[in-house]
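Sanity check. The docking grid for fe (ii) ion depends on where the pocket ends up, so I'm generating a full predicted complex first rather than guessing from homology. Inputs follow.
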Amino acid sequence: MAFARNQWYVAAYGSEVGRELLARTVLGEPLVLYRTGAGEAVALADRCVHRRYPLSESRLDGDTIVCGYHGFTYDQTGSCVFVPGQQRIPRTARVAAYPVVEQDSFVWVFIGDRDRADPTTIPRAPWLTDPRYAVVRGMAPLNARYGLLVDNLMDLSHETYLHGGYIGTPEVANTPITTEVDDERGIVYVSRHMDDAECPPFYARSTGIQGRITRWQDIEYHPPCLYLLHSRIAPQGVYPPAQGEDTEAFHAEIVYAITPSTENTTYDFWAVARDFAIDDESVSEYLHQSNHTVVMQDVTALNILEQVIAAEPEKYQELSINIDTGGLAARRLLARMVDAGRVEATR
Amino acid sequence: MSGPARMLTGDRVYRIHWMPGTDILRGVCHCGAERVAEEPVELWEWLLAHPQGHHSPVPPAPEVPTRTAVPA
Ligand code: FES
Ligand SMILES: [Fe+2]
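Predicted complex below; grid placement will be based on this.
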């Protein structure tokens, strides 16, 4: 699957970017990330113009990077401000600087034609920095193409089979979904509202609910990168009031950033924000451990799938059924974004 | 009680409802055209072809479902 250029992607958590140089490859482009003394996050191309040495293997001197091979020195705009042994700095001595926006605990970078970078188009995940929520999170590198993670997250019926004993129960696979596509805004929404479901350990242990639940899963995918799962858990039969706050229910906002690294590798950023037991460290620990386990179950499965697909001829055939309605919609929006990025690039 | 069927509120929203208790999918276009199907590939194709084939106020009878293989 090709990449959608001229889009924003999560390159890191803000907490990962500091005074150490961090290497990340996004859409096949090697980046080096760091934070200036004033606290601004910077993303530069991770290849010295001189002999291509990775700047991420170099060192920071104040807000500049000094190449670890022969000392070419770059400022935060990517301009070379020093070369060894001579006064004249060649005019072309610069590395690309990427537009960066820090928002909702993520460091977003724009991959493409930087004149097209509009920060107002970045989708939001406000719960990750909202003091009324407690957040656990992580990042798992995936040895699989990003499309496989999109497929995986768009169809949660796999929870019943791949994540039984954690988040999956029989009702997930058995409950019909409604799928919506907003063609103008580029959003896919998949609702699965389970009126009477078993409570999986993930929620039984974290909420303390005993007995059956009303469980809603509302997926909101903002391709290419941001995936939100609004999860509502309540004692069976408890629905939101017609007006006012939904105080009888427990809410978890599950956020993924799906960032293609190379053709066959992906960064899987995951976070779980909850509005209950927010001061209870043991709940945080439990949810972190459980969600990490769930993510790794997906990673293992998708890494296997990548090997299978990579070894197959180009036009293998697959079969789609009702559960795939949301995934098919996501693929279509992604394909459109890939095309748009290509057309713009050749103009 | 079942959940709300409409979550997105834009002017160009396409919807596919999986009818509870059945294997049937019902596609609803923003123009009001509707159609049922037994698998999603063909139904998306029809929906996204809007306005082509969406004129009829009466939903066309369901076609004989065909399993369509999709290239990934
Ligand atoms: S490769 Fe960086 S200075 Fe030579
Ligand atoms: Fe239509």
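Relevant for the grid: Chain B has one helix and four strands.
Also worth noting: Strands of chain B lie at 13-18, 25-28, 34-37, 69-71.
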